[in-house]
Write a structure and sequence with these properties.
Layout (H helix, E strand, L loop, with lengths): L9 E4 L4 E5 L5 H13 L3 E5 L5 H12 L3 E4 L5 E4 L13 E2 L4 H11 L5 E5 L10 H9 L3 E5 L3 E7 L8 E3 L5 H12 L3 E7 L6 H8 L3 E6 L5 E7 L7 E3 L4 H13 L3 E9 L6 H8 L3 E10 L2 E9 L20 H9 L4 E4 L12 H11 L3 E5 L2 E5 L10 E2 L5 H11 L6 E3 L12 H8 L2 E4 L5
Parallel strand pairs: 2-15, 3-14, 6-7, 10-11, 21-22
Antiparallel strand pairs: 1-22, 1-23, 3-5, 4-5, 7-9, 8-9, 11-13, 12-13, 15-17, 16-17, 18-20, 19-20
Helix pairs in contact: 1-2, 1-3, 1-6, 2-3, 3-5, 4-5, 7-9, 7-11, 9-10, 9-11
This protein binds shikimate-3-phosphate.
Length: about 450
């Protein structure tokens, strides 16, 4: 997003119906990883379905700085000619990851095993997000870090001449922290072990193994996952197919559930079990969801998901489900606003450190639109009002794409239109959102920034 152009408020309006079949963009988590592993691999990686959103494009630009040749072919396939483990080049400019927490944290991991300096920065949102969680294990591996305020971007990281393999227990449920260590481990001689007490998305593990990395996963007696990487081994370029992002699919799906006369099919949605918490929760709330054409492609399960207008009931979402739906709470809160009764969401501490403080942003946005909430440091309760959500408010997005899309979804079914202060942030993960929702019957108005 161009930080110097003016904010573009966007408003959504109540729809008469929502119908059609759509494809949402490729998975953001897998897209970052495919570019990074393609860079660490020798030979050519061909990626189909790469998310062409700002976050991922920033990672592609960063990988060029480390020596990869990356091009987009006319048929939409991205090719990465990698440099190989041990052969990354020192970047000659600052690495600007824009809004992307996944991008910066994974790239820091990749770079931490090389005896050169990388300087990272990002936008106003990313510069507020905690990096210490990633820097701590990377420092244990021998990297040196100079960071603003001890752990904020911009920061400079320099890997050790001889990076050290470690055993690291990830202190919070974070796939980004786990992945940073795994990526550093690939270029570190010896065996690095990452213990994950609470399992999180496992795309790094699957993809590292797919690129020929020496990685094993075992179950600990206490239910933890023990991931072991033997580093210094070559990786080989692969053909990678990226399915549709379940976190993006969530927006048209929830829109269909709460809108009148809706029947929407979202095709090719990735159903990796570490990502399906929202689908489970919506089904428990009584959502009319049908999964068809279930298949496995490129090592991931996928399905087409049909969502129809539904009478939802409030529920309590188990706290231990949070890692499998962590990015979906904003849009779940919209479904909850249209459900009968209360929806209780405990275990939300990680929402405080996303692209925005998502718990606060959701509470403020719901309040501005006449929806009753209660919340604490790590929980949220929404009281639903089926058929009678007032809307009419303006939501501050705080540079957070998912806050923008969630509240625009609300506006398709609330009595009055819902306005978000800046629609540009959506380009982070889902540039086609407005067009795709319009094709289904969604209605938007673009306002001038005084509108
Ligand atoms: C991601 C992990 C999650 C998620 C983010 C993508 C990843 O973050 O919220 O959108 O691709 O590894 P945390 O690792 O901070 O939980």
């Amino acid at each position: 997003m161009d930080a110097f152009s003016a904010a573009q408020p966007l408003r959504s309006h109540k729809v008469k119906s929502l119908t059609g079949t759509v494809r949402v963009p490729g998975d953001k988590s897998m897209s970052h990883r495919a570019l990074i592993l393609g860079t660490l691999a020798r030979g050519t990686t061909r990626i189909s379905g790469l998310l062409e959103g700002e976050d991922v494009l920033a990672t592609a630009e960063a990988m060029r700085q480390y020596g990869a040749m990356i091009t987009r072919r006319d048929d939409g396939i991205w090719t990465v000619d990698g440099v190989g483990v041990g052969a990354l080049l020192e970047p000659s400019d600052v690495i600007d990851c824009g809004n992307a927490g996944t991008g910066v944290r994974l790239i820091m991991g990749m770079a931490a095993a090389y005896p050169f300096s990388s300087t990272f920065t990002g936008d106003g949102s990313l510069r507020k997000r905690p990096m210490k969680r990633v820097l701590d294990p990377l420092e244990e591996m021998g990297a040196q870090v100079i960071a603003r305020d001890g752990g904020l971007l911009p920061l400079t990281l320099r890997g050790n001449d001889v990076p050290l393999p470690i055993t690291y227990t990830v202190p919070m449920p974070s796939a980004q922290v786990k992945s940073a260590v795994l990526l550093a481990a690939l270029s570190t001689e010896g065996t690095t072990t990452v213990i994950e007490p609470i399992p999180t998305r496992d795309h790094s593990e699957r993809m590292i193994a797919g690129f020929g990395g020496d990685l094993t996963v075992e179950a600990g007696e206490d239910g933890s996952r023990i991931i072991t990487v033997k580093g210094g081994k070559p990786l080989t370029g692969q053909d990678v197919t990226i399915p549709a992002d379940p976190s993006s699919a969530a927006f048209p799906i929830v829109a269909a559930l709460i809108a009148p006369d809706a029947n929407v099919v979202v095709q090719n949605v990735m159903l990796n079990p570490t990502r399906t918490g929202l689908i489970t929760t919506l089904q428990e709330m009584g959502a009319d969801l049908t999964l068809t054409n279930r298949r496995t492609e490129g090592g991931e399960e996928l399905a087409d998901i049909t969502a129809k207008s539904s009478q939802l009931n409030g529920t309590t979402v188990p706290a231990d489900r949070a890692p499998s739906m962590i990015d979906e709470y904003p849009v779940l809160a919209m479904a909850a606003a249209f459900a009968e009764g209360q929806t209780r969401m405990p275990g939300l501490h990680e929402l405080r450190v996303k692209e925005s403080d998502r718990l606060a942003a959701v509470v403020d946005g719901l309040t501005a639109n006449g929806v009753e909430t209660e919340s604490g440091e790590d929980w949220l309760t929404v009281t639903g009002n089926p058929g009678a959500v007032p809307g009419g408010g303006t939501v501050i997005t705080h540079l957070d794409h998912r806050i923008a899309m969630a509240f625009l979804v609300m506006g398709f079914a609330s009595r009055n239109p819902v306005t978000v202060d800046d629609g540009r942030v959506i380009a982070t993960s889902f540039p086609a959102f407005e067009g795709l929702m319009t094709d289904l019957g969604g209605r938007f108005t673009r306002l001038s920034n005084h509108g």
